[in-house]
Amino acid sequence: MLDVIDLNIEFHDHITPETVVYDFDLHLEEGEIVGIVGESGSGKSMSALAIAGLLSRKHMKKRGQILFDGVDLLSCSRETLRKYQGNDISMVFQEPMTSLNPVKKIGWQVGESLRLHTSLNEDEIRGKVLKMLKEVELPDPEAVFDKYPHELSGGMRQRVMIAAALICAPKILIADEPTTALDVTVQAQIISLLKRINKETGTAILFISHDLSVIKKLCGRVLVMYQGRIVESGDVNEVFSNPAKEYTKKLIKAIPKMEKLTLA
After folding, report:
1. For residue range 227-251, what is the model confidence (pLDDT) as tens digits?
2. What is the DSSP letter of 93?
3. Distance in angstroms (rounded) separating the CA atoms of residues 93 and 184
4. Can you give the pTM of this predicted structure?
5. Percent of the chain with pLDDT over 70
6. Is the dihedral of CA 57, 53, 74, 215 positive or negative?
7. Nearest Cα to 174, choosing from 48, 43, 29, 37?
8. DSSP classification of residue 149
9. Confidence at 11, pLDDT banded by 50, 70, 90
10. How far apart are CA 212 and CA 38, in angstroms?
11. What SS3 class is residue 226?
């Protein structure tokens, strides 16, 4: 369904060009959950933004291919790209307060993609939004529909972002550090929610994180990135039990001991 081939990203907003992603390759099947893990600055989020078509086309040079259903999202027109964004490929970010509009009610924001990509009327949109708010396990969807982002907890706001990303039934959900800003209990709830959505809808998930323990709980396959390059990839259990690269070994050693006991 998705093939990223030889993706290279180079910034040109400084005197000297800076490459931040080198020769990135990814194959994502329908219904698969793949994790990308690495420390800050490793290039994982930059790769995800490129796949989502959210990188500026100015001040940077991108080389390679991002093939989605045979269309190269890296070289296609903006008009073509917009047909896929939010419809077939959606993204959830780390901090929903920076992604949600503070002056728009939750119901309006979750339904925005339906206004862009469908011909549904407002009553039909409201019905679909309420159903989706219930699907992401938000209590009292009718009340949440009419609230503003600041009236919700962090975990509830993240569920709203997931609802907005899923409202058009995308084929791919890209989740960029969606649990990092949440406490451990809420983090576990969000991971469980993503697992259920994947199982019930077949939506493929590309999950970005710096935390290997979260990747282990959710993903079937993992790519390990370091300084803009994929240094190791494979089945998540195999990578955990038999890491080949020194960097991966260091990441695994960095997992707190209590989490290691839980994962064992």
Report:
1. 999 999 999 999 999 999 999 998 8
2. -
3. 18
4. 0.90
5. 97
6. positive
7. 48
8. G
9. confident
10. 8
11. strand
